[in-house]
Amino acid sequence: MNFKKVEELLDKRRINLPSPPALAIRLLESVREEDYKRLAETIRLDPALAARVLGLANSQLYRTGATEITSIETALSLLGTDVIKNMALSFAVAHSFPRKGRSYGFDLERFWKRAVTNAVSARLLAQRISLEDDHLFTAGLLMDLGVLLLHLILEEEYARVFDEKEVSEKPLWEVEQALLGFTHAEAGAYLFRRWHLPEHIIQDVCFHHRWEEAPEEFREHARLLSMAALLGGIYFSEKKTVKYNRALREIPKFLGISGEDTEALIDQVARECQEIFSFFDLPVENIPPYSELVEEAHQELERLSLNCALILRQLKEEKARAEELAHRLREANERLRLLSILDGLTELYNHRYFQERLREEFERARRYRRSISLIMLDIDHFKKINDTYGHLAGDFILRGLSRLIRENIRKSDIPARYGGEEFAIILPETDLRGASVLGERLREKVAQEPFYFEEHAIRVTISVGVASCFPSMNGTDPRKLLETADKALYYSKTHGRNRLTAVIVH
Question: Which pTM was predicted?
Answer without folding.
Answer: 0.59
